[in-house]
C-alpha cells in the first residue's frame, strides 16, 4: 500500500503478501527479510511490521518484475525480552506456571459447570501462592529479623543495623517493644505487595488494555470451535483488574494477620488488658471478613470470552485493597501499643501458617485432579498429555516452586543472621522438612532421566538404518549416520515430556505430604519400643534436611545470579525471554501477578494488519509462521471474520501447534480446534523435520494436496559432499526452514491456490475429500 493509502486492485495487479512471524528467542527484521535496509511500516518500538526499503510501495508497482510475494516481517520479541526490568519476572515464575494450569484443562462438551469449577479451583490455588509468597516475606522480616534476631542479644550485636530494635542493645528504646518491631518490619512485605501490584497494574495498562478488532454481529458458531476465536478471548482487562484487587488485598491481610496475631494471643492470656483484648478480637474479626471478601471476589467471576467486556467492576472490588491497607495500619497501631512484660521468645506462628497453606494447596490439587478426570472422561483424547491430568500436575509444580522459593529465602536469611547456628531458632520446622524432600525428588528425576537416556540411545541405534535409506546414492559414513540418528532420537525426547512431568508432580505431591506429616510429628516423643527405628528415621531425615538446605541455598544463589545477569546482559535476557515466549502466550486467567500475556498485544496486531490489508487490496496473503510464530498466526486466523479468513493461506514450519499445544492444551488446540482452523482458512501447509525437537506434524487431512502435513523434510539436505553442497551440510533441526527448496515450492503452491478476488470452490474427488 502506498504512503497515501491507495492500492491497485488485485484483479489488475495480482498483489500477494507474505506476512512472516518469527518464533521464540526473537530476531531482527533484517534477518527475517534478508535485507540490511528495512523500514517500519506500522507499529512501535515494542512490536512492529517491517518491509524492505524497496517494497514500501510495492502495491503501486505490481509489474516491476517480482516473481514472489511481497515479504513483511512482524517482530514481537520485545514483548518478552525487552529492557532489564524483565529480569524481575523471574520472581513471578510460580505465578506463571499456575496460570498455565488454567489453560490445560481437557476438552469437554456440554460440561460448563464442571469447566467453571475447574477454573475456580485454579484461581483458588493461585490465591494460595500469593499468600505463600507474602507469608515467606513476613517470615523473613517479622519472624527471623524483628522477632528472633532483634530479640536475642548475640544475634542483635552481630548485626548493628538491628541494634535500635533490640531491648538489650538499645537499652529499651521506643522501637524495642516486640509489637513495634513487628509493625516496623511489616514495611518489607508491604513493599513487596506494592511492587507486585505496581508491576501488574503497569503491564495491565500496556497489554490487557489493547482492544481486539471488533467483529460486527458475527455468530459465535462461525468463529471456530475453539475459545480462541471468541471476541473477548484476548481482552482480559476486567478479570485481571478484579483478580489484582483481590490478590493485593490478600497479601495485605496476610501481613496484618502476622502483625496482630502474636499481640492478640498475649492479650488473651490471663491478666491481660481487657480493652486490648476486645480490640484484638474486633481486628481479627475484620481480618476474617476481609479474607471472606477476597475469596468471594475470586470465586464470583471468571473470564468473559463470549463478548468484548469493556467494563470494570464496581467500587467495592476496586476499593478492596484500600480496605485491607486500613486494616494493616490498624493492626500496626494495635501491635505497637504499650504492653508491660511482653517479650519475644521462640518463633511466630509460622509452623501453623505454612502448614495450613501446604494442606490447602494439597486439597486443591487433588480436587483439581478429580475434576480434570471427569472432564477427560466426557471426551477422551488419546493425544492429551497425562490423560487430561496435565493441569493438576502443573499446579502441583507451581506450588512446589513457591515452597522451594519460600524455604530458600527463609533458610538463607536465617543462616546469614545466625552464623553460629545457636542464637536463634531459625525458620519454621515445616520449611526444613520441605527441604528434605528435594534430594529425594532429585533422585527420582535422575533415575527417570537415566531411563530416558537409555531409551534414547537405543532409539538412535534403531534409526541408523532408516537414515542411510534416505540417502541411497551417497557413500555411507558411520559417524555421520550416528550423528543424524542421535539428533533424531534427542528430538523425540519432547514427546516424553508428559511422563517426566507426571513423575515429578506425583513424587512432589507424595513426598510433600510426607514432609507435612513429619513436621507435625517431629516434636512428639517416640515410644521406647520404636525408639531405635525413630532414631534411624530421624537421622536419615536430618541428613536429607541438611542436603536439601544446601541444595536450596545453591538454587537460591543461582537464581539471584541468573536474575542479575539477565538485568545487565541482553543476551541472557533473551534466553529468559524464550521461557516467557512459551509460558506467557496465555492470558492471565488465574493469577494477576503472573508475567503479562504478550499475545494480547500480538494477536490484535496481526489481526488488524491482515484484515486492513485484505480489505484495502483484495490481494492474496500467506501467513508464514515459524515455531511460536505459527501459534500466533493460528490465533490471529481464528480472530478474523470468515470473509477475510477465507482469503488467507497458512504456512507453518517448525510448528508446535499439535505436538506441544495440542497435547498440553487440548481444550483449545485439540483435534477439533485444528480441524476447524483447517476448514476456516483457504488452505494450510505444514513443514517439519524429524530432527526438530519443537515442531512436528499437525496430523490432519488437508485440501492442499493429500494432507496438511508434507512428508518430513530432509535434514541435512545432503548426506555428504556433492556438487550442489561441496561442504558438509549442517543438521538444521528447528532453524532455517527457508533454506530448504521445499519452502519456496510450498509457498508458491499456496499462492497459486488462493484466488485473487473471491475464495475459490474446493473440488471434491470421488472419495469426497477436498483436493487442490
UniProtKB/TrEMBL annotation:
Signal peptide: none annotated. InterPro entries: AB_hydrolase_fold. Residues 752-772 are annotated as: Disordered. The keyword Transmembrane applies. SUPFAM superfamilies: alpha/beta-Hydrolases. The chain crosses the membrane at residues 87-105, 117-137, 182-199, 245-266, 278-299, 320-337, 357-376, 388-410, 430-453, 500-520, 544-563. Keywords: Membrane, Transmembrane, Transmembrane helix. Residues 763-772 have a biased composition (Basic and acidic residues). It comes from the Bacteria. This is Integral membrane protein.
Amino acid at each position: 500500500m502506498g504512503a497515501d493509502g491507495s492500492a491497485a486492485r488485485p484483479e489488475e495487479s495480482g498483489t500477494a503478501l507474505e506476512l512472516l512471524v518469527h518464533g521464540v528467542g526473537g530476531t531482527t527484521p533484517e534477518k527475517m527479510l534478508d535485507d540490511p535496509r528495512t523500514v517500519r511500516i506500522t507499529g512501535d518500538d515494542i512490536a512492529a511490521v517491517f518491509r524492505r526499503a524497496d517494497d514500501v510501495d510495492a502495491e503501486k508497482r505490481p509489474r516491476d518484475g517480482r516473481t514472489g510475494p511481497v515479504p513483511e516481517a512482524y517482530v514481537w520479541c520485545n514483548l518478552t525480552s525487552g529492557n532489564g526490568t524483565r529480569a524481575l519476572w523471574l520472581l513471578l515464575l510460580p505465578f506463571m506456571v499456575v496460570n498455565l494450569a488454567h489453560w490445560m484443562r481437557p476438552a469437554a462438551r456440554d460440561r460448563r459447570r464442571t469447566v467453571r469449577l475447574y477454573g475456580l479451583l485454579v484461581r483458588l490455588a493461585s490465591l494460595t501462592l500469593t499468600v505463600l509468597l507474602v507469608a515467606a516475606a513476613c517470615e523473613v522480616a517479622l519472624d527471623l529479623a524483628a522477632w528472633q534476631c532483634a530479640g536475642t542479644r548475640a544475634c542483635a550485636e552481630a548485626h548493628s543495623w538491628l541494634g535500635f530494635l533490640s531491648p538489650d542493645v538499645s537499652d529499651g528504646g521506643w522501637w524495642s517493644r516486640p509489637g513495634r518491631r513487628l509493625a516496623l518490619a511489616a514495611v518489607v512485605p508491604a513493599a513487596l505487595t506494592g511492587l507486585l501490584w505496581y508491576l501488574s497494574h503497569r503491564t495491565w495498562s500496556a497489554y490487557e488494555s489493547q482492544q481486539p478488532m471488533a467483529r460486527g454481529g458475527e455468530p459465535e458458531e462461525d468463529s471456530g470451535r475453539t475459545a480462541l476465536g471468541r471476541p473477548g478471548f484476548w481482552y482480559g482487562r476486567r478479570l485481571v483488574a478484579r483478580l489484582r484487587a483481590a490478590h493485593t488485598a490478600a497479601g495485605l491481610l496476610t501481613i496484618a494477620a502476622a502483625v496482630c496475631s502474636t499481640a492478640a494471643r498475649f492479650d488473651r492470656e490471663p491478666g491481660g488488658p481487657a480493652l486490648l483484648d476486645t480490640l484484638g478480637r474486633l481486628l481479627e474479626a475484620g481480618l476474617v471478613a476481609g479474607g471472606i471478601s477476597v475469596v468471594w471476589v475470586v470465586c464470583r467471576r471468571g473470564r468473559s470470552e463470549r463478548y468484548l467486556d469493556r467494563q470494570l467492576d464496581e467500587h467495592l472490588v476496586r476499593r478492596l485493597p484500600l480496605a485491607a491497607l486500613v486494616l494493616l495500619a490498624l493492626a500496626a497501631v494495635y501491635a505497637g501499643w504499650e504492653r508491660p512484660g511482653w517479650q519475644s521468645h521462640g518463633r511466630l506462628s509460622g509452623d501453623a501458617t505454612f502448614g495450613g497453606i501446604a494442606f490447602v494447596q494439597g486439597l486443591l490439587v487433588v480436587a483439581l485432579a478429580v475434576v480434570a478426570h471427569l472432564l477427560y472422561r466426557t471426551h477422551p483424547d488419546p493425544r492429551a498429555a497425562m490423560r487430561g491430568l496435565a493441569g493438576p500436575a502443573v499446579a502441583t509444580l507451581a506450588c512446589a516452586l513457591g515452597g522451594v522459593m519460600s524455604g530458600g529465602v527463609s533458610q538463607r536469611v536465617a543462616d546469614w543472621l545466625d552464623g553460629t547456628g545457636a542464637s536463634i531458632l531459625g525458620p519454621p520446622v515445616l520449611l526444613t522438612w520441605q527441604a528434605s524432600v528435594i534430594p529425594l525428588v532429585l533422585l527420582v528425576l535422575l533415575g527417570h532421566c537415566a531411563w530416558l537416556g537409555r531409551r534414547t540411545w537405543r532409539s538412535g541405534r534403531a534409526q541408523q538404518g532408516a537414515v542411510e535409506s534416505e540417502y541411497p546414492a551417497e557413500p555411507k559414513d558411520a559417524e555421520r549416520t550416528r550423528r543424524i540418528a542421535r539428533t533424531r532420537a534427542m528430538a523425540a525426547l519432547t514427546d516424553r515430556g508428559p511422563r517426566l512431568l507426571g513423575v515429578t508432580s506425583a513424587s512432589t505431591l507424595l513426598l510433600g505430604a510426607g514432609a507435612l506429616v513429619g513436621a507435625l510429628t517431629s516434636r512428639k516423643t517416640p515410644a521406647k519400643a520404636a525408639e531405635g527405628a525413630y532414631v534411624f528415621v530421624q537421622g536419615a531425615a536430618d541428613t536429607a534436611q541438611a542436603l536439601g538446605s544446601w541444595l536450596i541455598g545453591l538454587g537460591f544463589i543461582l537464581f539471584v545470579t541468573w536474575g542479575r545477569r539477565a538485568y545487565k546482559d541482553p543476551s541472557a535476557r533473551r534466553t529468559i525471554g524464550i521461557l516467557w515466549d512459551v509460558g506467557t502466550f496465555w492470558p492471565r486467567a488465574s493469577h494477576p501477578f503472573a508475567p503479562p500475556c504478550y499475545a494480547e498485544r500480538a494477536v490484535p496486531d496481526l489481526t488488524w494488519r491482515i484484515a486492513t490489508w485484505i480489505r484495502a487490496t483484495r490481494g492474496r496473503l500467506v501467513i508464514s509462521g515459524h515455531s511460536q510464530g505459527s501459534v500466533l498466526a493460528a490465533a490471529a486466523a481464528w480472530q478474523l471474520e470468515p470473509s477475510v479468513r477465507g482469503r488467507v493461506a497458512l504456512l507453518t514450519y517448525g510448528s508446535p501447534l499439535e505436538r506441544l499445544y495440542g497435547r498440553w492444551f487440548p481444550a483449545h488446540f485439540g483435534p477439533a480446534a485444528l480441524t476447524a482452523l483447517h476448514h476456516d482458512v483457504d488452505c494450510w501447509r505444514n513443514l517439519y523435520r524429524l530432527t526438530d525437537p519443537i515442531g512436528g506434524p499437525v496430523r490432519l487431512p488437508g485440501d492442499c494436496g493429500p494432507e496438511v502435513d508434507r512428508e518430513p523434510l530432509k535434514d541435512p539436505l545432503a548426506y555428504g559432499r556433492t556438487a550442489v553442497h561441496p561442504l558438509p551440510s549442517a543438521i538444521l533441526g528447528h532453524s532455517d526452514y527457508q533454506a530448504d527448496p521445499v519452502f519456496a515450492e510450498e509457498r508458491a503452491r499456496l499462492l497459486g491456490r488462493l484466488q485473487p478476488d473471491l475464495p475459490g470452490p474446493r473440488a471434491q474427488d470421488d472419495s469426497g475429500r477436498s483436493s487442490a
